[in-house]
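Worked Example 4.2. Consider the chain below.
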Amino acid sequence: MTLMKWDRALLLKLLKVKMKLLIDTHLLLWAAADMLPKQAIDYFEDLENELHFSPASIWEVVIKNGLNRSDFRVNPTALYRGLLENGYKELEISSNHAILTAGLPLHHKDPFDRILLAQARAEGLALLSADRALSHFSPVIFVG
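Applying the procedure from the previous section yields the following C-alpha cells:
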C-alpha cells in the first residue's frame, strides 16, 4: 500500500498530529445533541485537536430555525454559548474569506458551505463535514 492510499485521519492519528478543525453546521448541531456520527467522535474527543466554528454556522441556524426547518430546531444563542463554554474557537469571517468563495467550483452552491470551505482553506484548517457534496473538496475530512 502506498502512502497516498492511506486514510488521512488514520495517518494523522498514528503520527499524533494536532489538527485544527473547522466543524460544519450539522456536526455542531449533532455534537450539541449527542448525536454525532460514529466516524466523527474521535475528532471531537481528541483533546489535541483544536475545534473551531464559524459565525456562518450560527447565522445558518438563525435563518433555518426561522424557516421552521426541523433539523435546525435549536436556540442559536444557547448553541453559541455552549460552543464557547466547551472550548470551541470562533473563526471570524473576513472579506478575504468572502472573496475566496469566488474561486470555488459552482457545482456546490450552498453559500454557508462555500464560506466554511473558503475559511478552512484560507486559515489552514481542515473542514470536518458529514456532507457528501463536500467530500471531494480539499481540505475536507468527510465523516458521513
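The chain has a mean pLDDT of 89. The CA atoms of residues 27 and 36 lie 7 Å apart. Compare this with Example 4.1 before moving on.
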